Amino acid sequence: MNWESHKILAESNQWSAILPETALVFLALSLLLLDMFGGKPGRELIGRIAVVGQVILIFLSFTLLRNNLGIHNQETFSGMLFHSEFSQVMRIFFLLSSLLTSYLGSIFLKKNQISGTEFYTILLLITAGLMLLAQSNHFIMLFVALETVTIGFYVLVSYNRDKSNSLEAGLKYLIMGGLSTAILLMGIVLLFGLASNPELPGMSHNAMKFSDLDIFLRLNGDNVVAKTGVLLVLAGIAFKIGSVPFQIWIPDVYQGAPTPVTAALAVSSKAGGFAVLITLVSGPFKPMAELVVPVLSLTAIVTILFGNIAALTQRNVKRLIGLSGVSHTGYLLIGVVAIYSIPTAESAIVFYLITYLLASYAVLGVMAHLSVAGKDDLQELGDYQGMLKESPFLSGVLVLGLSSLAGIPPLAGFIGKLLIFYAAFQAELYALLGVAIAGIVISIYYYFGWIKEATFRFWKLPILGAEEPEAPKEWSEIGSLTRVTLGVLALLTLALGLYPGPLSSLIGG
Amino acid sequence: MTNYSILLLGTILVPLVAALVMLGGGSLSKATTRSLATVGFSFPALASLILWINFQPTDSSGYDYLIVLPTGLERLGITLHLGLNGISVPLFFLAGIVGLAAGLYALQSEAERPQQYLMLILFMQSGLMGVFASVDIFFFYFFHELALIPTFICIGVWGERDRHSAAMEMTIYLTLGAMLSLLGLLAIYFQSDASAFNMIALKEAITTKPIEGGVQNVIFGLLLFGFGILVSLFPFHSWAPRGYAAAPTSIAMLHAGVLKKFGLYGFVQVALPLVPLGAVHWSNFLAWLALGSVVIIGLITIAQRDLKMMVGFSSVMHMGYCFLGVACVSILGAAGVILTMVAHGLTIALLFLLGHVVYRRTETFEMADMGGLVRQAPALAAIFSTAVLASIGLPGPGLLNFFGEFTVFTALWDFNEAFAFLAVLGVIISAVYGLRAVASIFFGPHSETFAKHLKENAVKDITVAEKIPTFILFAALVVIGLWPRSITDDMNRALEAEFKTIHAMLATLEIQPDEEGIEIARTAITQNR
């Protein structure tokens, strides 16, 4: 390479394009410095600084998106990153999710009296990784970003290090995560090796780049090795989004992980997987429709049925959230399949993810408030009995959140499902629609059962000999921050259901 | 947009705002709650009366009071499009009147936490008015769900025996029905290439390009099972009697009287005009299930010993007549469906209300533990017997029920004489259980239990407060019964316009089904226009 080409490469390194990610990393590192040199007063500020920093970043990114500033539809860093409108929206999504996780984390850390520096640091690094993941345009970039996220989660899952359940969850996640990474990497290597083969038409010197791979796969779609590679990559991603048959880690890990981490796994990690999946199916895997559509359709069907049926018998709320999350993965996969014939299905998926974020954090916020120190992983449905009497506010938030997850109008979750159905109808995926309907009906049983525990035992008849379960003390002490945060989440869930226009136009539907 | 359109919007907004004030206003004083609720219930009733009297469609679509508001979902063809046509006017009025009666009765209930109870009923009322005022099909479905959710909560929290399991069963069953209907409605939209997801645009799209025959069969099948579950068609009825037995009285009145009519209204307003070939394809199957509703459920009703269960089963049974009307796929049949719906809505609300008035005096729903109540409550006995006679469909107090059922039977005779013969059996069955109930509650000697109860408690006749909602329902029943042209003229006009397209499409069925038939239908329809 001569001087000129180096210069061209250097010019493509537009650091301003990844300003939010850079800022997050700096924030994370300065938190560590503050912990080291700030003394006790500095340490107490760490949580607040992390939150304020994220709020400022969200505000900045949002302003950039609203005013169509920033870099659009352009490759940077020698084609490592591609900045589309979709990735811009997903960046804000991850920041928002991270902010809400920090808020849940502050409740959890205070209750269990665990130091929080590493929690916030790692969370911010994971978020930076996720944001890069959504913009990646090259398998190396994708892999590095994905591993940043996954390794961060290994630590966070076992963050409650005095509890054996948390450690067990961490170990399980590590083993299963390692396996999925290996599978993903194997797929990438197969595709790379094949696409760099000079004997084959359409070979490329930069075969890991998505656009080059796209051209190659167009010409070699029938190649068995290419097919294997695509399938292995999909399997690696299936682990992240928790679709069958790579969902097996979910209940245990969700249960053992601290509640804020469960939330991040359920929302951020899943959305990250979907961001990658959408990038791949609307990019390099587009020519592989004949292979990918049946595989993903079958996965969607099994995932929806497995998630819903397995959730039916759960009494532990965190396992329930995990398994019901599996079924949401299935609904989202329908949208991904629809992308092959209806490219606008992408906005339906994003809308669904946003409604899922709002409702999940509302429900998990209530869970975090109800959890008793040291027994974070043992919360049962029965603990919700009589909640309406003790805390009408929290039960209102819970009812709105769960109903939205169940997809009941007039809440945002219903509009999300409706948009997916619209896309599926246009793509003529009738079998998938039928399974989705069956899944939704099954899910009513456990979502409504949860609501029933919380609200219907309003005036419980005194049964002979049965003792009233003692209400945890935390119910009565709801701070104003909680009221504002959970209240806004619940109100947004309702408002987006009644008037979804602004959001759906913002995400470019 | 006229002032009347604003009034139409108001029927939805006034109860909604009243409910939201109760939701967000902290704990209000009893007087404030009551006056808010009274306004929230009376306004839709009065407005629906005014809108009914002034109804005069000038638009070629047959709709009056049209109003369109943006929702931000225009790219999906969804707008808040409200209006009334000849088919929806009587049902809109029904929703207003039954809402008022149920609301007034709820005001007297001794439910704990009355503010929350009234708030949920107001939400329900807002949804009910919205269902029949919606031209947009998304909102037609949306308002139905808005009314359905409070139903579940009210049954779960304020219900009576088995309320938890009944509420759960009802929720799961009705969600299944609602989801299937949603799929069917969406399928119509996507198969028709309509410019918007509302009834006017869909009907226009269908006249230029009908949906293919085979697809129509699938869509009507989805709607048949979806709407069928929602309207408790035999054998998908098991949620209804249990749910009504567990429900608080006002909720049972609103659900059995109005909300359940959503499915049948959907058949007449959406399914018949848009997928008539599908309707003809399924009509025999539907008619058999409907006959099951009338005869089998009728016999089960006779076996009931519990007053509230009996009323619940009788409501399932009477829905069978409506389904028979749908199965005829004719103007007469559709008109019979609407007449029966209005008549049944008023009567069943009346029966649930009076059943609870009886319960207040006997403190049991077991009919064997009553008897001889006429001596303590002669006025109640007279009113109750009249309501039962109306429900049987005898001319007189139940003139409207009679007209409705008679129209259905006439239409059914054209469809299939044997079916008509079997369906008429239902009248005898109704008479058996209705009159037996009257006899065992009011006449004969006091049962032992009731005699004991009488010794310990003073039992009074029906009070003025209980009479008011009763008379509101009776007045509507008698006025429309004596002067049915007040609703049938507009209905006839709307149905004739609707069936012009349907007949043209059906005519092709006899010549040649499938694609070629559609081609012929298209020419036939264009000529008709």
Descriptive overview:
The complex is a heterodimer of chains A (about 500) and B (about 525). Helix content of chain A is about 75%, strand content about 0%. The radius of gyration of chain A is 23 Å and the shape is globular. In chain A, strands 1-2 form a two-stranded antiparallel ribbon. Chain A has one domain. With about 525 residues, chain B is an all-alpha fold. Chain B has one domain. Chain B contains 21 helices and 2 strands. In chain B, strands 1-2 form a two-stranded antiparallel sheet. Chain B starts with a helix and ends with a helix. The relative contact order of chain B is 0.10. The model of chain B has no long low-confidence stretch (mean pLDDT about 85). Classes of the chains: A mainly alpha (about 500), B mainly alpha (about 525). Chains A and B meet through helix 17, helix 18 and helix 20 of A and helix 5 and helix 6 of B.
Which keywords apply here?
heterodimer, A: 509 residues, mainly alpha, two-stranded antiparallel sheet, 73% helix, globular, B: 529 residues, two-stranded antiparallel ribbon, 21 helices, 2 strands, 2% strand
